[in-house]
Amino acid sequence: AQSVTQLGSHVSVSEGALVLLRCNYSSSVPPYLFWYVQYPNQGLQLLLKYTSAATLVKGINGFEAEFKKSETSFHLTKPSAHMSDAAEYFCAVSEEGNNRLAFGKGNQVVVIP
Amino acid sequence: GAVVSQHPSWVICKSGTSVKIECRSLDFQATTMFWYRQFPKQSLMLMATSNEGSKATYEQGVEKDKFLINHASLTLSTLTVTSAHPEDSSFYICSARGGQGSYGYTFGSGTRLTVV
How far apart are the CA of A17 and the nearest CA of chain B, in angstroms? Predict the structure, then answer.
């Protein structure tokens, strides 16, 4: 079964600094990979997704992620953090023919002024 | 873009009563919908998968008789928490997936259930 690993539940980053959230996946077939953001008491908003097209995926709010098959990774980055980026971020994986999304444990991002 | 509407956003109910949460896909047909439960500071836990016109598939450990799921149309799925108890208090989120070739999962805004 597919799964993802997100290390470091809390990530602190200074305003204007690089945001890097790591995600490693496990899948028996080529995966579909997603990054979602969640603000308090809200649902999940899709930041970006990888569906076997370009390996470098650009999303909303200046985020991007690169699919690296050799490293089974799909790390999320943003060059310059804003205060509004403070939120919970989830990496998720699904597979062709399998409707289910498997979520990582999430990263709580804190932006320090 | 795809929009999923979830209602209510929050609800407080007394122990022993039942609560219904609705999840609607507003601008697309959702053949499959998912229901998640999220505890504070934790990830989403899949409770069940519902397919239009058929019985829901529940994850291991989820009580079918307590969490009733109905997916009667291509745009509506409901989750009913029956005989609610304080331990059922949680944040419930639905998501919907479109038809063949769609890789997207669209999430509702969630429902905060508090059982007193």
Answer: 25
